[in-house]
Amino acid sequence: MSRIVMKFGGTSVAGIPEIENAARKVVAEVARGHQVAVVVSAMAGVTNQLVEYCARISPLHDVREYDAVVSSGENVTAGLMALALQKAGVSARSWQGWQIPLRTDEVHSKARIEAIETDELEKRFAGGEVAVIAGFQGITPRNRISTLGRGGSDTTAVAVAAAIKAQRCDIYTDVNGVYTTDPRIVPQARKLEKISYEEMLEMASLGAKVLMTRSVEMAMKMNVPVQVLSTFEEPIGSDFPGTLVTREEDIVEQHVVNGVAFSRDEAKVTLLDLPDTPGIAGQVFGPLSEANINVDMIVQNVSADGKKTDMTFTIRRADLPRALGVLGKIEALKKTEIRSDDKVAKVSVVGIGMQSHAGVAQTMFRALGEKGINIQVISTSEIKISVLIDEAYTELAIRALHAAYRLEEKLSA
Ligand code: ADP
Ligand code: ASP
Ligand code: MG
Questions:
Q1: Measured between alpha carbons, how far is 152 from 74 in angstroms, rounded to an integer?
Q2: What is the DSSP letter of 233?
Q3: Do 301 and 363 reside in the same domain of the chain?
Q4: pLDDT tier for residue 413 given thresholds of 50, 70 and 90
Q5: Ligand 1 atom 21: the closest Cα is on which residue?
Q6: Ligand 3 center to residue 204 CA distance, Å?
Q7: Full-prediction pTM beyond 0.90?
Q8: Alpha carbon of 190 to those of 129, 207, 243, 374: distances in Å?
Q9: Which of the ligands is closest to the CA of residue 149?
Q10: Which ligand is nearest to the CA of 230?
């Protein structure tokens, strides 16, 4: 008998008919003889609403109470899913994070999972009961409710799969797999049968929200096979209709570039006439990191006169006002002009194959140039190239790159 985790995202549990539809999938897996843990998100739109309620009371709210509020959406769906399963004749009960318990650190609103106790779950699996677990939430060492960050139910699902040694973690969502890019933007996007953990990790961290980055990180570390598949199509996970996220060795067919990802959650800061002296980067980035502001892309120009230089870097859009506040207080920048732009987007191409192929960057730059899209900043790693562009051209850039790397075509190795 094998064991699987089935995770249903917000649109998959958006209302009672959807919950009953998802429950039918669980029943079908149970009928195939599997032990099942179900992980549910809040109903579509509920978490956004709860986040907004907190913000309306105060933008500077106590994050522990924020977690108490925003975690509650998942409590509702866990209970409803258990009821739907019971109605379908399957023994089931709901579990909130603290009841398991699923233990996290104390970093409220983006907590990390530290341990999951499985004794009670194990006993109940043995008795044929399905565990319906509220995703996205846990409990801190101080006995407070924590949440794992937006999209965190994916991470709950993978962590539960690792803890109960499940054979597979199926992520049911509103698309039927991982595509070469967001199929809502490029209708020609191609569904991938398999994708390596490394590429999925880059795609997720560069903006493809189909899986939360941390869930992919954990799947890779714990060697959990993850399948992304549709809640609204007929086949169930055990028929392998979706995209399998797995080890690179298990993938036969490879493009040089396998995907295009994008993020509009970007802002650019430029420091003009910065003193070109040793230690200046530390004086700029030290205070930003102390304020918990992550810096992503960085470019510094060669100084023309040896005294002054220009520097540009990117941060998350929501962090821009705070970042400008921090920079405004740095003594060494007193004579520096600080410019910012929050109408920028990052577009990236990802592929393990680029490690061993030349000309990948050139294809990207040519494709963007032909469309008249100006590249503002470039950053690369072994398996990705990212560019920062004017936000207005995001979709044009994604389509141009998808075509330039012929991602709509299924090539053989
Ligand atoms: P859920 O609520 O089920 O967690 P999400 O909205 O978080 O679902 O993730 C699914 C969405 O991810 C899809 O609707 C799709 O628009 C988006 N997406 C972005 N990039 C990709 C990609 N490369 N492949 C598939 N979906 C993608
Ligand atoms: N409900 C949470 C969110 O919307 C967690 C999740 O759905 O994964 O971010
Ligand atoms: Mg999601």
A1: 11
A2: S
A3: yes
A4: very low
A5: 182
A6: 11
A7: yes
A8: 38, 18, 11, 27
A9: 2
A10: 1
